[in-house]
Design a protein that fits this description.
The structure is a single chain. The chain is an alpha/beta fold. The protein has three domains: 164 residues, Alpha-D-Glucose-1,6-Bisphosphate, Chain A, domain 3; 234 residues, Alpha-D-Glucose-1,6-Bisphosphate, subunit A, domain 3 (Alpha-D-Glucose-1,6-Bisphosphate, Chain A, domain 3), CATH 3.40.120; 109 residues, 2-Layer Sandwich (TATA-Binding Protein), CATH 3.30.310. The strands form four sheets. Strands 16, 17, 18, 19, 20, 21 and 22 form a seven-stranded antiparallel sheet that branches. Strands 1-5-4-2-3-6 form a six-stranded mixed sheet, with helices on both faces. Strands 8-7-9-10-11 form a five-stranded mixed sheet, sandwiched between helices. Strand 12, helix 14 and strand 13 form a beta-alpha-beta unit.
Length: 564
């Protein structure tokens, strides 16, 4: 069935008067838009589903959400009665239709005989990940598009280990989903009736407290060791982090803590920020304004589902400096290692995990403390997925992270967690302030100790079918004609992960190591229409590192952009 036939089928099946039917009528005659919406089913992978909200098989709507829910319900049912009894926990973020999609999914799971746990309102992704293992459920679902613009929504799927589903589980779920017909294969349930029967259970505030207690147990220093009057600004970017982050900061005793009023409460349109990604310095505009009024030394932000976390630091000249994900990682790695060493709690077989596209500076830092830094593919299903195997080898997991502002400090939260990362960064800022230093000065000290690293992570956004095809051609071209030199530096080693490498599974990633300590990597995004690049170099000064990294990145991007 081609895209026009799919379009006609949906037009026939969705009743008149339904807003989605009117949306289909509005598409009439627009072949390009019909093709974009119907050329494929929205792909289900290890990150679940993610797409623009709207009518069509390639969009997020109640039919694609219901089909995914029915398929996963069938997958859980096939696992047996014990899996059905264990059940599924479902959360959602503040986006348009998130609450409705959450209730829809819950009714389908419960109608299949699967116990369902839901929250009374939006909750952070890391809390969901934690409670999967705490409640012992078979699976978890979060209706969220993370940091994407307001037009998007998504459907994150987790398994019983508290991680996003592995490739093998995702493949099994995909097979079940693809067997479900959008209009005849879904068994809808009555949400209120199933709740009254106990098949859908509302989680109480005691579960929020369990999550906060867990992350607050990560504290390394407390009380008189900290200057808790340090002025701090935090923004949840109108997302799920507002209440838990505020509660955590109050629990820890911070007394000079502010949130921009315009971004404190949920807003599905993200009116004051537009693109709610804390990785983008523009997301800090209101925080900087409030910071200047209050004299804040630290600005922090989480994305709408509170798994991503980023900071800006007050510099010595009084301006706010945004840190990239690697730099925040350096501060967290250093604080955890130094803090545990000073406290006498650094384990004998300590382990940390970073992604293969994350700076190697943290590997040197870990080695200096006798801690081993392991590598994993991008995504916290891979980073946190290493925790069980590390524990089997008698390693003590201390921290995991990746450059795209994701940090996992708690072994019982098997996903990136902006709340716990924020707690540790705030604690570190208060600890060093007590010592007469700022985090900005600490970062400079780390560069002086380990070398001046430059980090640059640009990406090319290429939307739609044409963009997808061009990204594929770019990766093929890079593989076919690997350059011998880049910006005058010889390419000494190339790692192609398409068939796996050492203990790293197969993935569409290329990594190039150059003479002089520079390296870069390239890969298509798994969740967005992007091809992503990662450039790193280490030099004797920050200026030289930036110059060399700039020359290398400029040449690589020029070569890639020549691919039509």
């Amino acid at each position: 069935m081609d895209y026009q036939e799919r379009y006609q089928l949906w037009l026939k099946k969705i009743p008149e008067g339904d807003p989605l039917h009117q949306e289909l009528l509005d598409l009439s005659g627009n072949d390009k838009e019909i093709r974009e919406r119907f050329f494929q089913d929205l792909k289900f992978g290890t990150a679940g589903l993610r797409g623009i909200v709207g009518v069509g098989t390639n969009c997020m709507n109640r039919y694609t959400v219901a089909r995914a829910s029915q398929g996963i319900a069938d997958y859980i049912c096939e696992a047996g009665e014990e899996a059905k009894r264990k059940g599924v926990i479902i959360a959602h973020d503040p986006r348009h239709f998130s609450k409705e999609f959450c209730a829809l999914a819950a009714s389908i799971y419960a109608e299949a005989g699967i116990k369902v746990y839901v929250f009374p309102d939006l909750r952070p992704t890391p809390e969901l990940a934690y409670l999967i293992r705490k409640l012992g459920t078979a699976s978890g679902i979060n209706i969220t598009a993370s940091h994407n613009p307001k037009e998007y929504n998504g459907y994150k799927a987790y398994w019983e280990d508290g991680c996003q589903v592995s490739a093998s589980v995702a493949d099994g779920m995909t097979a079940k989903i693809e067997a479900v017909d959008y209009f005849t294969g879904i068994r809808y349930g009555d949400y209120e009736k199933l709740k009254a029967e106990g098949m859908i259970e509302l989680l109480g505030p005691e579960y929020d407290r369990c999550y906060l207690d867990e992350i607050e147990s990560l504290a390394i220093h407390s009380g008189d060791e900290l200057d808790l009057s340090i002025p701090i600004v935090y923004t949840p970017l109108n997302g799920a982090g507002s209440i838990p982050f505020r509660t955590m900061m109050q629990d820890r005793g911070f007394t000079n803590f502010q949130i921009p009023e315009e971004q404190k409460d949920p807003d599905p349109d993200f009116t004051t920020v537009g693109y709610p990604n804390p990785e983008d310095p523009k997301a800090f505009r209101l925080s900087e304004e409030l910071g200047r009024k209050t004299g804040a030394e630290l600005l922090m932000a989480t994305d709408p589902d509170s798994d991503r976390f980023a900071v800006e630091l007050l510099s010595d000249d009084g301006t706010y400096v945004p840190l990239n994900g690697n730099q925040t990682g350096y501060l967290l790695v250093n604080y955890i290692l130094e803090g545990h060493k000073d406290a006498g709690t650094l384990p004998e077989r300590g382990a940390m995990v970073k992604s293969i596209v994350t700076s190697t500076m943290s590997s040197e830092m870990a080695e200096a403390y006798g801690v081993r830094m392991f590598e994993a593919l991008t995504g916290f299903k891979n980073i946190c997925g290493r925790i069980p195997e590390l524990e089997k080898e008698n390693y003590h997991y201390l921290f995991g992270y990746e450059e795209s502002v994701g940090y996992a400090a708690c072994p019982n939260v098997r996903d990136k967690d902006g709340i716990s990362a924020g707690m540790l960064v705030a604690e570190a800022a208060a600890y060093y302030k007590k010592m007469g230093k700022t985090l900005f000065q600490v970062l400079e000290e780390l560069y002086q100790k380990y070398g001046y690293y430059a980090e640059y992570e640009p990406n090319l956004i290429l939307k739609g079918i044409e963009g997808q095809e061009r990204i594929s051609r770019m990766m093929s071209a890079i593989r076919a004609s690997s350059p011998a030199k880049i910006a005058g530096y010889a390419v000494e080693k190339v790692i192609d992960y398409k068939d796996g490498y050492e203990d790293i599974p197969a993935s569409n990633v290329l990594r190039f190591f150059l003479e002089g300590g520079s390296w870069f990597a390239v890969r298509p995004s798994g969740t967005e229409p992007k091809i992503k690049f990662y450039f790193y170099t280490r030099q004797n000064s920050r200026e030289e590192a930036l110059r060399v990294n700039g020359a290398i990145s400029e040449e690589v991007l020029r070569i890639v952009n020549q691919v039509e």
